[in-house]
Amino acid sequence: MEKAILSEDNILLGVSCKDRWEAIRTCGQVLLDQGYIKEEYIDDMMERERLYSVYVGNYIAIPHGVANSEKNILHSGISVVQLAEGVEFDGGKAYLKIGMQEKNGQIIDLSSRMHRPAWI
Fold first, then answer.
1. What is the pLDDT of residues 36-88, one digit of tens each?
2. Residue 64 falls in the annotated catalytic set
3. Cα–Cα distance measured from residue 52 to residue 118, given in angstroms and rounded to the nearest whole number
């Protein structure tokens, strides 16, 4: 049975995190708690940030896995974590974290649209 990509249970508002690492882990924990990923995917999200920042600008970061992370994904899904004070990233401060993972290419189209203005 396929899960909804986003549900109210995947959204946390007014969260306090001490740094980007805790914020990324929080995004992953939501996905783990809701049955979208295996615990190892959180490590994949952390590795992605070590390799290349998940900060995309405009106060938004989109934590996700690395190549070969799909083995740790059970269902495509999105977690949304709104940070009360924001956290520093290389290149800016993020107040909104959108954790994403895809199974069989489902989220690629959505994530590509998130990087450009809505009018395009």
1. 999 999 999 999 999 999 999 899 999 999 988 999 999 988 999 999 999 99
2. yes
3. 25
User: Is the CATH code 3.30.70.1170 the one for domain 8-114?
Assistant: no
Considering just the CA atoms, what is the radius of gyration of the chain in Å?
A: 13
Edge-to-edge order in the sheet of strand 11-15: 11-15, 77-89, 92-101, 60-61, 55-57
Q: How far is CA 109 from CA 2, 69, 104, 116, in A?
A: 18, 18, 12, 12
Per-residue pLDDT tens digits for 10-39: 999 999 999 999 999 999 999 999 999 999
pTM of the model: 0.83
Q: Enumerate the domain spans of the chain.
A: 8-114
* Catalytic residue, candidates 25, 48, 64, 97: 64
